[in-house]
Amino acid sequence: MRLGVTFRIVGGLLMFFSATMLPPLFVSVFYQDGAHAIFIKAAAVIFASGFSLWLLFRRFTEALRTKDGFLVTVLCYITLGCFSALPFTDSPNTALSLVDALFESFSGLTTTGATVMVGLESLPQSLLYYRQQLQWLGGMGIIVLAVAVLPMLGIGGMQLYRTETPGPVKDSKLTPRIKQTAMALWSIYLSLTIACCLGYWVAGMSFFQALCHSFSTVAIGGFSTFDASLGHFDSPAIEIVAIIFMLLSSLNFALHFFCYRDRSLRSYWRDEEVRSFFIFILIAILIATLILAGSSDDGWRSFRLAAFHVVSMLTTTGFVTDNFADWPNIVPYLLILGAFVGACAGSTGGGLKVIRVLLLYKQGLREIHRLIHPNAIFPIKISHRVMTDNVMEAVWGFCSIYVFVFVLLLLFLLGTGADFLTAFSAVAAALNNLGPGLGSVAENYASLTDSAKGAMVVGMVLGRLEIFTILVLFTGMYWRK
Fold first, then answer.
1. Which of 201, 253, 294, 417 could link 210 by a cystine bridge, Cβ 3.0 to 4.6 Å?
2. Is residue 179 very low, low, confident or very high in pLDDT (cuts 50, 70, 90)?
């Protein structure tokens, strides 16, 4: 295990991350909100810590191996999550404890969108911007961003890209070189962000609000600058823009790349995961609309609420325009359970990913067919490609570990005194990087105990890094030479 080169990389990334304090600093100076000292101090502490770590291990220049990428990825997320809490702990406007500050920073960096903060409208503009920026950086992964500049640090980046990229298939590259791949992904990500910002601006938001909400929309994060989330605006136009870009950001970014390269939309339609994703969304909207319309005389409002919240929750974004926890019948549970499916692999969304659920469904059908024809061979195909046994074993293994981790976190939260509905939805929101839950966490997570919040932070990181990246570090085989 090359611990020296690992710590050197973490130090370099910390120095790089310190530069992300500059945009909120400029916002603070522009709006004169008096919070500039917070970001100056945070930038200095982060840079000094990173430089010290890099200086201490600068002579370790060995090549980075694939297994080293797991440790680098986990250490970077934990380190950046901890250091990004500094502006929350230092701000007199938030009065957050250390646990609450860590909860908020990890929620932002993992694009979960759960919050312990209330009274957002009274916070400095720079701090509001900083929360949104955290989600934007975490959206495509702060590691993938750093891969684009890792050649300057003296190492290759393919190992990090493979451990960070979500989804069951992690070996495909869009371009021959990993730096080009990272730049291609970030170019698409940046383009979507700019288009989303312009869409919000045209729909009626101020430029500041449009920029902030475009960050959390494209990142599938769900943070807002208002306690009422997008419900503050009560605008169908803004909700339409949000729906469009939540859906776009929930698709595999490789498909965006191929469609741009080929100047054709055929790649979207040919992808079976995308087709299944939209069918699932449409069915859920129909069910939710019918149920809401049954208890309301306003059919248009029922459709508007159903469409927005189904897209928001099933893509694991977490924006709300109404308190869906108070909705009738099964709709709140439909939204929470739908988030388990999540977005497409290779997107900024969370959840199990549509392709995994689709493979499990096809595996179930195959077992039924085998009961009828025991000696027949029924290959499982996705988009006309046969899935190997290795892929199926990986999917089953991931889902098994996912359920196991979910049960452990659920039992832990129940042990802290949370009721079952609160504990179940909170764990679901953390592991699926969703945000809003039911029960006492329907609006925020401030009511949870510190130990419960700590467990939620663990769940957020596990969900963001898809569990195995972290669990592999707890095996003895990983640490053997």
1. 201
2. low
